[in-house]
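Hello K.,

You asked for the raw outputs rather than the summary table, so here they are, unedited. I folded two proteins back to back in the same session to keep the settings identical. This is the first:
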Amino acid sequence: MNDLKPVSFLVPGEPVGKGRPRIGKVGNHGRMFTPAKTASYEGLIAMAGTTAMAGRTLLEGAVMVELRIVMAVPASKSKKWKAQALAGEVFPTKKPDMDNVIKAIYDGLNGVVWKDDVQVVDAFVRKRYGETPGVHVKITPLLQEAA
């Protein structure tokens, strides 16, 4: 039976969206590569996930993911605006796109927390401003009945 305890951790720092693959040229051949910023962020995600797993085996079966994407409040804004943002009255409608952050988190956890992100069947995601930027991740294995 799978261990049904949730796995929770924080990916520190300003959230980064998954970048589109780029095409580079090697000799006369085109080559696809992941942008360095995306690769670096996925590495950070994998490290946070590995630490949270603490030697536990990869999750199998369906999982629910809860993500709280916390964006830094821009320093250029007024004191009043910052207070409103931290109170949840102003929303971060700026890059990175929420779906690109989700994709980076999911891809960074493949082979670290779960076998593959196809296992995600439920998700709850919020993107808000906060004092400390980062992505709070909680992954809960879902009980599956035997076929």
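The second followed immediately with the same parameters:
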Amino acid sequence: MNGLNVLLTGACGKIGKTFFEASKDRYRFTLTDRVEPDFALGEHRFVRADLSDKSVLASLLENIEVVVHLSGIPDPAASFEELLPNNILATTYLFEAAVAAGVQRLVYASSAQAVEGYPVDREITPDMQVMPANLYGVTKCYGEALCGYYATKTPLSTIAVRIGAFEFPQHADLNNARDLSAWLSPRDAVQLLQCAVDTRDVKHLVAHGISNNRFKRLDLSETIRVLGYQPVDDAFQVFEIPITY
């Protein structure tokens, strides 16, 4: 381990579990989710919690240096009533508590849905304004704005990672060129999150989280330059899917 104490929220989700399993010898984890884990914790700590309850956060963040915030409802069809406690309130409370606890960095799982309103044949660069196509994407725009606010007004370093279509190759539900262009493979996701945790001297960044796909929905040049991210997988080689638009 490199000594970093990391709080991982949403630890029992697909990305959370994948990141933990690949990084459990690298960091000292406190894991949290609203459900119990179905994997071995080893020497790491798990706390079952609902992050929309402010009262649980202080104890979760004790001695934490970096937060990787993956929890929330990831459903583009979710209603505002579902999203409010899980994606808005919980995220807001976590930022507040992280600053109060002296956390050094918060890595926030944003989504490609924050810019999904752009035409499917357009590559998104980090300098383009947000353009969500659903309320879930709106909540991710809000989280990105919180990253900017807290990086500007407090000592907290923030990295918002716009995660694309995270899928395991054997269970992928990718049906067209747009889906393939946004794919994020498990091993590239792990590398990207590790870069976001480990890279020094970054005060604020909106990073793009897809693999090295032949056609890219999200431009990776700034993410590669700042974080040293080197994705290796290409959806157009991995999946045998006819390319249609």
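The CA atoms of residues 111 and 162 lie 4 Å apart.

Happy to rerun anything if the numbers look odd on your end.

Regards,
P.
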